[in-house]
């Protein structure tokens, strides 16, 4: 079957390790379901995999891709939950949870197999491309907002780095849930798009907000860390799920964190139950993931290049 896969690891030039071509189709195994992929979306996790983060040379070649929507053997339309082994289903109770492609072949292929427990029904209201955007970036944003930030309708949230998959999702989900959403970006066009998606206002990176917020959704890291801390009200929450600009900010702002009793909460992915709630929320409220571009699987390299350059707003989707 045709697939996009990591053939080599290159920490400095990750796309050098990306190959497109034929790979073995998944074999049947008890307790697992093979899905015919209709659409799959790119995540920064795929670039990190090409850099050797989460996998080693011994795992190669590894088909990339965490997210997918498609059909099962009975023709049912389904969405995949990307965390394998979260409860032991299909892998045994002692195996640590992993994101698809850290241990098992991924979804950038004509077929992918996962534990049957990881397969959820796709709402009829969502297309395959839209559903394929949800299991990683959108689920991450959902958990950050509603589980770890604990915000309620009427609360205020700052989303750093408008344009990325998680940030875009947080803007749309937050606005739909009745939050006052502020956003930042270095790019004027991205700030305008953020406002079109429901942000009350969008500002250049680092600019002072009109008010301090209840929570900050942080995926940028070092470049925005100080601004995130300074933007919080006393007792507010800074929820972080990534650091695309680096892990070591110049200023940690520890004095503000303890004096204002701020909460710093790490957040990674989400549960199957949260994904089911997210799917239901999107279907019921007419929420649709923001898709930057849709490409056939044989043009996957173009999608990886867009993501690596940061030249996108929303998700890149690969279709099979």
N- and C-termini, Cα separation: 11 Å
Can you write the helix and strand succession as a string? EEEHEEEEEEEHHEHEHEEHEHEHEHE
Main sheet, how many strands, which sense, barrel? 7 strands, mixed
Q: How many β strands by DSSP?
A: 18
Briefly, what is this?
The chain has 320 residues and is of the alpha/beta class.
Task: Describe this structure as you would to a colleague.
This protein has about 325 residues and is an alpha/beta fold. About 25% of the residues lie in helices and about 25% in strands. The protein is built from nine helices and 18 strands. The protein has helices at about 45-50, 130, 135-150, 165-175, 190-195, 225-230, 255-260, 270-285, 300-310; strands at about 1-5, 20, 30-40, 60-65, 70, 75-80, 85, 100, 110-115, 120, 155-160, 180-185, 200-205, 215-220, 230-240, 265, 290-295, 315-320. The strands form four sheets. Strands 3, 5, 6, 9, 10, 17 and 18 form a seven-stranded mixed β-sheet that branches. Helix 4 (about 165-175) links the parallel strand 11 and strand 12. Helix 3 packs across helix 4 (about 165-175) and helix 3 (about 135-150) crosses helix 8 (about 270-285). The protein is globular and about 55 Å long. The mean pLDDT is about 95.
């Amino acid at each position: 079957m045709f697939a996009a896969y990591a053939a080599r690891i290159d920490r400095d030039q990750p796309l050098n390790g990306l190959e497109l071509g034929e790979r073995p189709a998944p074999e049947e195994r008890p307790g697992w379901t093979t899905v015919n992929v209709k659409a799959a979306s790119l995540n920064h996790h795929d670039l990190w995999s090409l850099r050797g983060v989460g996998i080693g040379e011994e795992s190669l070649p590894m088909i990339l891709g965490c997210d997918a929507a498609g059909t099962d053997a009975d023709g049912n339309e389904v969405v995949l939950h990307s965390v394998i082994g979260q409860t032991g289903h299909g892998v045994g109770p002692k195996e640590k949870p992993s994101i698809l492609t850290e241990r098992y072949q991924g979804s950038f292929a004509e077929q992918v197999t996962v534990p049957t427990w990881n397969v959820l029904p796709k709402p009829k209201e969502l297309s395959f491309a839209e559903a394929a955007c949800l299991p990683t970036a959108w689920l991450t944003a959902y958990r950050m907002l509603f589980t770890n930030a604990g915000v309620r309708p009427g609360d205020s949230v700052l989303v750093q780095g408008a344009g990325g998959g998680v940030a875009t999702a947080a803007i749309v989900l937050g606005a739909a849930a009745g939050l006052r959403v502020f956003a930042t970006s270095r790019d004027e066009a991205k700030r305008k798009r953020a406002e079109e998606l429901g942000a009350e206002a969008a500002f250049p990176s680092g600019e002072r907000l009109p008010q301090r917020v209840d929570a900050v959704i942080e995926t940028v890291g070092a470049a925005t860390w100080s601004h995130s801390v300074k933007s919080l009200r006393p007792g507010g929450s800074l929820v972080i799920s990534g650091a695309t600009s680096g892990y070591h900010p110049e200023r940690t702002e520890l004095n503000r964190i303890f004096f204002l009793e701020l909460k710093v909460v790490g957040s990674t992915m989400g549960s199957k139950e949260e994904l089911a709630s997210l799917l239901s929320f999107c279907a019921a409220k007419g929420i649709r993931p923001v898709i930057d571009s849709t490409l056939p699987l044989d043009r996957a390299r173009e999608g990886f290049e867009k993501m690596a350059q940061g030249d996108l707003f929303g998700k890149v989707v690969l279709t099979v």
